[in-house]
Amino acid sequence: MSDKIDYQQRMQTAMNALMQVAMKNMVKELLEEVAKDGLPGNHHFFIAFRTAHPGVDIAPWLKEKYPDEMTIVMQDWFDNLAVMSDRFTVTLNFNNTAEPMVIPFDAITSFSDPSVEFGLRFDATEPKNDKKLEEVSTEVEEPHRDAEVVSLAAFRKPKK
Description:
This protein is 23% helix and 29% strand. By secondary structure, it is α+β, with helices and mostly antiparallel strands. It has a 5-stranded mixed beta sheet, covered by helices on one side. The relative contact order is 0.19.
């Protein structure tokens, strides 16, 4: 045990966790707007999520095909989009078959709107039983596709 409390590190960890929550809330709000008004203009979303995350409900054949992570595209055809406090539901078309799915916000690993080169990458977290904030990774992710990925590293103060 150290004889000194590292408040700077604790502040960074807390701020990073709060940023993750704020960005997921932004995704939630965007999906709420789309559920109400539809997608405006050329906007479309790529949403990647962990298929093994508790609460994810997808067809067994999709789970078999994507055992770890899956990216869905919400663009021309989607139906029954509903947003709850901790998850959203949507029906998507796979090979002319409507497939309903349930995706908890905590399962999302990335969100992007390539039409405006915007993207977010989330730290992978597992559900916890306690209310303690998780330590957030300091690794910078490389951007995917042409979207701009917002990394939390840009908001951190350099270590002295």
